[in-house]
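Please describe the entry underneath.
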Amino acid sequence: MIRSVRLVPLFAWLALAACARAAPETPRRTELDPAVARAIMAPLLADPELAGLEAGPDPVQLDAAIPPDDFAPETVAAARDEARKLVAGTRPQPPLRGGACRGCDALFVDERAAVLDAGCRGRLTPSLAWSLRLPAELPVYPRSHLREAAGSDAPGCLARAASFIAPVAGDEVLAFYRAVAASAGFALEPLGPRAFVGRRGAQRIAVIVRSAEGGFAQFDLMTAG
C-alpha cells in the first residue's frame, strides 16, 4: 500500500507533461493584405479638415471620423460660383477627343497614376497627406471632398496623385481643368473621353474624370516631374 501511494505524484507529473506537449501553439498573427487594408480603412476627408495639417518629409496616415459629403443645392451653387472665379479671364478650351484610356479604370489612385508615364509604377506611397503637396497652379475643384492620395519624393519618381468627389457633373470638372491647365501653359493631349495629360517641359499633369453616384463626378489630379 505504501509503494502505490508513492507512485501517485509520479503519474500526475507524467499526465501534466503530456498535456503540455499536446497543447496547441498560439497561432502567429498574420499581416493584413495592404490592398484590403486601404479599402476598408481609408477615411474620407473634406478639404476644410486639411487646413491645419502639415505635410512633413514623411507623409502620415490620417485617421479621423469625417461627416458625409454635403452636396446640397446651395453647396453646388457655391462650388460653381467659386470655380467660375478661379478661371475668370481664361480662354475656354475645346473638348479633347480620344480613345479608351488604359489605366484610367484601375482600382486605386496610385495605380491610375501610371498614365503619367513617370517611371513610378509601384513606387507611390498611399497617404492622404500627399494631397497637400499638389501644385497651387492645379487647384482642387471648389467644395470637393478628398477620397485618397498617394505620392513619392524618391529619386527619379517625384509624383503626387489625389482623388476627389466633386459636387458637380463630370463635364463641368473636365472643362474647369482644361481651362486651368491651358492657362498654366500646359500642352494638352487626350487620354480618353474624360481624361487628358498636360506637358510643360519636364513637368506632366493628368486629370481623369469619372461618374460617381448621384450624378456627381469623381476626379483624379496627378503631377510628375
User: Anything to note?
Assistant: Residues 116 and 206 are 6 Å apart (CA to CA). The two ends are 91 Å apart (CA to CA).
